[in-house]
Amino acid sequence: MLPIPVNEPLLDGNEKKYLNQSIDTGWISSEGPFVVQFEQQFAARVERKYGIAVSNGSVALDAAVVALGIGQGDEVILPTFTIISCAAAITRAGAVPVVVDCDPHTWNMDISQIEAKITSRTKAIMVVHIYGLPVDMIPILALADKYGLQVIEDAAEMHGQTYNGLPCGSFGNISTFSFYPNKHITTGEGGMLLTNDEQLAQRCRSLRNLCFQPQKRFVHEELGWNMRMSNLQAAIGVAQLERLDEFVARKRRMGQRYTELLAAIPGIQLPLPRTEYADNIYWVYGLVLKDEVPFDAETAMQRLRELHIGTRPFFWCMHEQPVFSKMGLFEGESCPVAERIARRGFYIPSGLALTEEQIERVALGVKEIMR
Ligand SMILES: *Cc1c(COP(=O)(O)O)cnc(C)c1O
Predict the structure, then answer these.
(1) pLDDT tens-digit readout, 288-339
(2) How far apart are CA 334 and CA 81, in angstroms?
């Protein structure tokens, strides 16, 4: 039996056509026309003025932190339940990550814990929307306003999602996206920064391109990176963006189908189908084993592997990362909700190419291991 991959993208639109155009015209570097087209179209879709395409979602976070002037001695509040890229961007800039626990139902950062973590050194809140449901933004924007904080919105998992009807990625000073193949739209590798602030956009463009200066190209006032996106990647991005609504609808149907098939199985917590402000777009379909289940996510994933079903564990908390404890960070930190879901949560195949037969096979597999 062929294993069901945890993620397989759909690339059957205009991807080949636009890639061929890039090759036929000789435009393959970041100077090619698809890069600007992708930036403009993606920014317009998220209702932002400026888009800066970069080589992946992780470096987008690096650029966002540095572009906002966050550095030595500053603190940034973020969820502990997220990808390493978020905390890495903060520590690499010389700033200190300060974590909050997550909500047991949405798995998003528990916004009620943010205010207590604000100090005179806090410069920003890094919001990360997790797995398909957006963070409740209004209270965060109010806190940012009250304390004069910047907001970075990591919307890597939120392509096409809205919060109270407004696009995710349209909030805060700057937002970031990833176009890794497991996201709703992909460029293979790729990322984007979005902002309405022209100066911030300029800073990001400069950081993306080694901080070359327009007048004296090889004289540098600051250090940047080469984090440019190629025209080949952007060609795929333009084709993928044409299908974003279709992809979001498809993911929603897949999520609803999983929920129908899994709802009656005891011992597992399923993703919330909706909150007050959004319907789930199921970036991934996560499961959390309830406390009465006598095994953890690792065992569950092993058993599913034996049934040829691909899985991935949930994120591992930032405050439990060996790399950060070696840096002396997060000593004595406790976030019981995130610690629990990190050990008892995993996600099942969630890619856009998943078929109805595969969904049914996965659901049967889950039923089997929960017996
Ligand atoms: C995927 C992801 C990233 C990193 O993106 P890459 O393109 O893989 O570097 C950052 N943040 C979140 C929330 C993600 O899901």
Answers:
(1) 999 999 999 999 999 999 999 999 999 999 999 999 999 999 999 999 999 9
(2) 12
Instruction: State the DSSP string of 200-263.
Output: HHHHHHHHHBTT--SSSTT--SS---B-BPPHHHHHHHHHHHTTHHHHHHHHHHHHHHHHHHHT
Closest CA to 153 of 195, 201, 118: 195
Q: Which of 58, 65, 90, 186 to mutate to test the pocket of ligand 1 (most atoms within 8 A of CB)?
A: 58
Instruction: Give the domain ranges of the chain.
Output: 15-241, 244-370
CA distance 59 to 84: 12
Q: How many residues does the chain have?
A: 371
* Backbone torsions φ then ψ of 162, nearest 5 degrees: -125, 155
52 and 176 in contact (C-beta within 8 Å)? Answer: no
What's the confidence (pLDDT) of residue 85?
Answer: 98
Class (C level, CATH) for 244-370: alpha beta
Each residue's pLDDT tens digit, 171-192: 999 999 999 999 999 999 999 9
Sort strands 285-289 and 345-348 into parallel, antiparallel or unpaired.
antiparallel
Q: What is the dihedral of CA 346, 349, 351, 356, to 10 degrees?
A: -140
- % pLDDT > 90, the chain: 99
- Residue closest via CA to ligand 1's atom 12 equals 156
Classify 15-241 by CATH class.
alpha beta
The Å distance, Cα 112 to ligand 1 centre, comes to 25
